[in-house]
Amino acid sequence: QVQFVESGGGLVQPGGSLRLSCAASGSLFRIYAMGWYRQAPGKQRELVAHITSGGSTNYADSVKGRFTISRDNAKNTVYLQMNSLKPEDTAVYYCNFQPSRRDYWGQGTQVTVSS
Fold first, then answer.
1. Number of C-beta neighbours around residue 31 at 10 A
2. Is the bond leading into 99 cis (omega within 30 degrees of zero)?
3. pLDDT in tens, 60-91
4. Is the pLDDT of residue 26 over 80?
């Protein structure tokens, strides 16, 4: 069974950058589309970026031009490079398949953007 472990979150000032990583177990990782999702306090979880098995990407309008999703199939890892961070980017960030599958949510990684 595939498991996802997110890391790389932290506290950063507005305008700063972070790089999140999602390590996946399992040998079939490379054939699936993957997504980065986030959930802010009191809000529903939302998809912010996804990447297909072939490397095509798509982004939510709120992060377009600031976030970049990438994957390294040799390392079974998906990344999210976040630049020009804003306070409204504060959330717990998760990775999952795209479309997401209920049983594969990990613990996520907290990103807090504050001065």
1. 8
2. yes
3. 999 999 999 999 999 999 999 999 999 999 99
4. no
Is 91 within 8 Å of 39 (Cβ atoms)?
A: yes
- Residue 78, token pair as written in the block: 């998906």
Could you say which DSSP state residue 99 is in? S
**Strand ranges for the chain from DSSP E:** 4-7, 10-12, 18-24, 34-39, 46-51, 57-59, 67-72, 77-82, 91-97, 109-113
Closest CA to 3 of 78, 106, 92: 106
Contacts 24+ apart (CB under 8 A), 107-110: 107/5, 107/6, 108/6, 108/9, 108/39, 109/6, 109/7, 109/8, 109/9, 109/20, 110/9, 110/10
Locate 109 and state its tokens.
Answer: 């990684």
**Nearest one of 115, 92, 114 to 105, comparing CA atoms:** 92
